[in-house]
Amino acid sequence: MSERSGTLANDPFNGRHPTSHERLTGLPWDRSYHDGPPPWDTGQPQPAIVRVASKGGFAGAVLDAGCGTGENALHVASLGLSVLGVDVAETALAIAREKARDRGIEVEFAVADAFQLVRWSRRFETVLDCGLFHTFDSDERTRYVASLASVTEHDGTLYVLCFSDHGPDTGPHPISREQLRAAFNSGTGWTITAIEPERVQTRYHDDGAPAWLATIKRI
Ligand SMILES: C[S@@+](CC[C@H](N)C(=O)[O-])C[C@H]1O[C@@H](n2cnc3c(N)ncnc32)[C@H](O)[C@@H]1O
Known about the structure:
This protein is of the alpha/beta class. The protein is built from six helices and seven strands; from the N terminus they run ααβαβαββαβαββ. The protein has helices at residues 20-25, 47-54, 71-78, 90-103, 138-151, 177-183; strands spanning 62-65, 83-87, 108-111, 124-130, 152-163, 190-200, 209-218. Strands 3-2-1-4-5-7-6 form a seven-stranded mixed β-sheet, with helices on both faces. β4, α5 and β5 form a beta-alpha-beta unit. It is globular. It starts with 19 loop residues before the first helix and ends with a strand. The structure holds S-adenosylmethionine. S-adenosylmethionine binds at residues 19, 29, 40-41, 66-68, 72, 86-89, 92, 113-115, 130-132, 135.
């Protein structure tokens, strides 16, 4: 699963093409985790994801794309599901693995680029994206959605929890309902079953930021 072999020495992007977010900030994602928790890392699973899980929304093999330090993946795994969390930030994954060890939770964390999942033979019945989709520009979204489709079982479920454009106090990458519909539709292999207003907890919003929780089925 690791994509480290064959990468360039001292390349902070490990041979990857930097994402639009990384080009904007001039820093690899990994850097966000070097000096303590980044703004999105509250040290807890997102309440919206906990609610989905409590209603039985996760089933079968679960993929958490852009899992960060793993709170959502750890929560879902603690319910007895088989979970793989992937991220490009090795520092985040090291923290996630340490949490799993400390809490005695069985869960897999691996370095992987969410744009490159087409190479995989593994398939997932449930996929979670908490805060990754909204970091991509529209070209990246097209590639990402195709990559996710390649590893999601037909009739499988994808949950996207992203910042929404319905303010006040929107998060840094606000997404509209139209942008979700433009990315996930029958032409790209998906059908959206719900887009519900939610909150995403961050370290700098008292009551979270406005968000969408999109429930999306693979067709
Ligand atoms: C806003 S953070 C959210 C992290 C985590 N899901 C959470 O809720 O705490 C976005 C995460 O996506 C990861 N990421 C960004 N681009 C990625 C890519 N192309 N493939 C895999 N992970 C990526 C970042 O390293 C970061 O950990």
